[in-house]
Amino acid sequence: MTVQELPGAAAYRPTPPPAWKPITDPAPLLPDPEPYRVLGTDAVADVDPELLLRLHAELVRGRRYNTQATALTKQGRLAVYPSSTGQEACEIAAALVLEERDWLFPSYRDTLAAVARGLDPVEALTLLRGDRHTGYDPREHRIAPLCTPLATQLPHAVGLAHAARLKGDDVVALAMVGDGGTSEGDFHEALNFAAVWKAPVVFLVQNNGFAISVPLAKQTAAPSLAHKAVGYGMPGRLVDGNDAAAVHQVLSEAVARARRGEGPTLVEAVTYRMEAHTNADDATRYRVDSEVEAWRAHDPVQLLERELTGRGLLDDEGIERVREAAERMAAALRDRMNADPALAPMDLFTHVYAEQTSQLREQAVALRAELDAEQDHEHSAEESR
After folding, report:
1. Cα separations (Å) of 174 from 137, 205, 212, 215?
2. 90: which of 7, 220, 241, 342 is 20 to 30 A away, CA to CA?
3. What contacts 56, CB < 8 A, 6 or more positions away?
4. What is d(CA 102, CA 173) in angstroms, rounded to the nearest whole number?
């Protein structure tokens, strides 16, 4: 039986009832057709010169941090390091726009953002060295654990932001994710809940062109990742991810909007991963050198340096001071990472569950027995010498 054959078919109307109508006008939510830029435009005149100088110093420090951490990986001091070289503007801006009371939810490549927020450079690498669980206290620093599973930190950010609002706390959560993470279900679930609840959260997608070896065109047919925001009822912003001033401005506006109770924003920062995915990746198998070189001409450090020197805000002496400070940071990081840490094996069972499971208790007893037996053996060996 068709619809037209049903009783009362004459009264049937194909138009949906009024409740179908969109809750939100989509037009104001749409991102700009081109990534927003500040450097090299008239908009740069409105940026505080002190902010530009601070961004530059942090970018130089971040670049040196990336190269040093990569070297430590090659020397066997780190199991793996996902470099953010080329993406430093996104990392630094994400850290600087937040107030002390706010929370940062990083992904595995966002070590630099955590360090720029004030985390000890060694503690930021502890997880990647395999020494202990997170390497730092998330509550102390208001930085969630560096997240290796893709996009799982996004629903956590929404939950924390929503809970803070319910409690009346003036807190904003900024959640970072790569373009590959937007293909995960957690990404879509987080955006949907955030928009429905008007949670004070900002989503920063660092679109660096590849999800390991998968280019963006093989992940999505959307005009941009920022356009995905419209389907969930939040604004999408598209920004040049190598323009530190632009990223800082767009994120600042999104954080302020969230703090005013106006809900979440999705920001897509168009950037590029200049290094391989990690030390275990051979990037030459899926991209050509000419592509990398083209992006080097749009290097975030050089873009900001040219702006500052061109406006007379920075000279060669100032550049050298910043680089020397970065070298001192790298030397301290190198020295501390080259020292073997004193680890307590029983810490394996700490901070896993609030109340240990029976399996964990059994494993802890077994490990304690092995450690005691090993110690007794060492004592016996020393006495027999």
Report:
1. 18, 11, 23, 25
2. 220
3. 244, 301, 304, 305, 308, 314, 322
4. 6
Distance CA 48, CA 313 (A): 11
Here the tokens at position 375 are: 């110690």
DSSP secondary structure code for residue 31 in this structure: P
Residue 262 CA to residue 201 CA, distance in Å, equals 10
Sorted by sequence, the CB contacts under 8 Å of residue 61 that are 6+ apart come out as 322, 325, 326, 329
In one-letter notation, the amino acid at residue 20 is W
Q: Residue 247 has which token pair?
A: 């990223």
Exposed e or buried b for every residue in 270-295, given b needs 16+ CB within 10 A?
Answer: bbbbbbbbbeebebeeebeeeebeeb
Q: Cite the active site residues.
A: 273, 277, 286
Asked if residues 93 and 110 have their Cβ atoms less than 8 Å apart, the reply is: no
For residue 86, pLDDT beyond 70: yes
Tell me how far CA of residue 252 lies from CA of 245, 271, 323, in angstroms: 10, 18, 27
Calculate the alpha carbon distances from 70 to 85, 200, 229, 242, 278 in Å.
Answer: 10, 35, 34, 21, 9
pTM above 0.85? yes
Residue 24 has pLDDT above 80, yes or no: no
